[in-house]
Amino acid sequence: MFEKMANWQHLRMPWRSAKWLAIDIETNGLDAKGDAMLALAWVAIQPPRIMLNEAEYRVVNTNLELTQSAVVHQLSLSDIAAGLPLEEVLQDFIEAAEGAIIVAHNAQFDAAVLQQALKQTNMSWHPDGVYCTLRAERRRLERQSKTLKPDSLTLAACRERYGFDAFSGHHALNDAIACAELFLAQAFRYSSGHTPNARSLLKEGR
């Protein structure tokens, strides 16, 4: 995860008053520190709403050779060629993420990719917090003494337990929105009967 976070003072506010930003990153492989960022998507969450009108999707222009991962993520050579420089993509993201708590499924991977990209471009950014929907779901299931199967913590599997319809994954924007929906379902279940602050909820997904 990130070496340090931004100011935590405002995390004392009720979680529904905090700013949350669901993200998804597509890469050219599974090595967070060695493979290229191909696409980055984000969507703001203002509980109970997901701000679809503010959703953004950016493809990165990279000269690296594309692998099968790019095909899986529905990206072609022409998509990559028409993409934006990594610095511009990161700058747009940093502006959108100002004052926000980041939400991601398998956030450790996304955080590592972001760290590597920031290092590569000599840019700096520290989130106000990082909430992982995968870790939150694992924690919830472990409290119930549930047996975790190898595929029980995928984004699709986690969503299914909350009654969401199946979705078409492996597209950054679709995945970011799907993650935002899962986050809200987790958050409202966790906060049932009480009103936790943002910091308390954040700990569920750390």
UniProtKB/TrEMBL annotation:
The keyword Secreted does not apply. Pfam families: RNase_T (PF00929). CDD domains: DEDDh (cd06127). SMART domains: EXOIII. SUPFAM superfamilies: Ribonuclease H-like. Residues 19-192 form the Exonuclease domain. GO terms for biological process: DNA metabolic process. Keywords: Exonuclease, Hydrolase, Nuclease. One of its GO terms (cellular component) is cytosol. One of its GO terms (molecular function) is nucleic acid binding. PANTHER family: DNA POLYMERASE III SUBUNIT EPSILON (PTHR30231), PROTEIN NEN2 (PTHR30231:SF4). This is 3'-5' exonuclease. It comes from Aliidiomarina iranensis.
